[in-house]
Specification:
alpha+beta, eight-stranded antiparallel β-sheet, two-stranded antiparallel sheet
């Protein structure tokens, strides 16, 4: 039998044999590492745990993480400096009303208007919560220059006011009335002539909504009889001294970083005859809204809303006091 070929390190094939193993010097055993001095044990163990955790974070983090962290820290450090240097306001202060809307002077409606003998019911707690404010006026107003069967004889007016609530989503009839069971069948816009109330070119922009009620849902509209099938709602916002018609416009106006204060009021109206049985057409509603706003808006601006120009004259608490007078 042939002996398998070998090298200095053993056979060419197969596991090495005892005979093929070269003599190797035995390495002396290493001395144990000296013990780390401890002071009670707890401090060293806690410190080691923290270091291990920090090492894990560092090893698991990316360059992008540190870039983002640095950007956040830089933004936080410079935001206050920028706000002071350029007089920017990231958090808005509330603007109290001069007088609550609920105590609007009815005598100032005369001689063209007076309150209807049948007024809307007081809103329930759930309805107020849904409305988003306790500052509101909900009136049915009779136009004394019109016949009782005129579909614009009565204005159903709702004014609500909001301030001091950041990122509040404005309520709009397209959603609120539709949630009550009405179907939205049309949208439009108009610019109604109302002089002397700060509107651009003397015209207030309004948004128009066309709704339909069917069957039992007709009773869900306050003041409506079962004969009501369709109706028009016109509305707009007065926000930070300007007139707007959409949620996005309200948000954009309130997010102005150069304004220290923020508020908005929503004015909403629809028209019926004296018995609440007939609703006005679009053209008739626009004409009737112009006449009503020429009476209501001066009262709202002079007696209830703060003077926006005075409020922002110098950005001080004294200016805010003057705006409330």
């Amino acid at each position: 039998m042939k002996t398998p070929a070998t090298t200095n390190d053993g056979p060419l094939h197969g596991p090495p044999t005892a005979e093929a193993q070269p003599d190797r010097p035995v390495r002396p055993a290493e001395a144990p590492a000296p013990a780390v001095p401890r002071t009670g044990g707890r401090l060293s163990a806690g410190l080691q745990s923290c270091l291990n955790g920090l090492g894990s974070v560092v090893r698991g983090s990316s360059v992008r993480f540190y870039v983002c962290l640095a950007c956040l820290l830089l933004s936080a450090a410079t935001m206050d400096v920028l706000a002071r240097r350029f007089q920017l306001y990231f958090q808005k202060q509330s603007v109290p009303l001069k007088r609550p809307l609920a105590v609007m002077d009815q005598s100032k409606l005369l001689p063209e208007y007076r309150l209807h003998t049948r007024q809307p019911d007081t809103l329930s707690e759930d309805a107020v919560e849904s409305l988003g404010t306790e500052e509101y006026l909900n009136w049915s107003i009779v136009d004394l220059d019109r016949e009782r069967d005129d579909p614009t004889c009565v204005a159903h007016l709702l004014i609500s006011y909001y301030t001091g609530k950041p990122n509040l989503v404005p309520h709009v009839p397209e959603e609120c009335i539709r949630a009550a069971g009405a179907a939205l069948v049309g949208l439009g816009r108009a610019r109604i002539p109302v002089a002397g109330v700060g509107a651009p070119d003397g015209r207030i922009p309004v948004r128009m909504c066309d709704f339909e009620l069917a069957g039992a849902n007709q009773a869900s509209l306050p003041g409506a009889s079962t004969r009501v099938a369709t109706f028009k709602v016109l509305y707009f916002f007065h926000v930070n001294g300007e007139y707007k018609t959409t949620r996005n416009e309200v948000r954009l106006a309130q997010s102005n970083l150069f304004h220290r204060y923020a508020y908005y009021a929503k004015v909403e109206v629809r028209f019926t005859d004296y018995s609440f049985r007939r609703n006005a057409s679009e053209e008739a509603s626009i004409a009737a809204t112009g006449k009503l706003l020429r009476k209501i808006m001066p009262v709202l601006l002079e007696d209830h809303l703060a003077d926006w120009e005075a409020l922002n004259s110098d950005g001080t608490d004294e200016a805010a006091g003057r705006a409330q007078r």
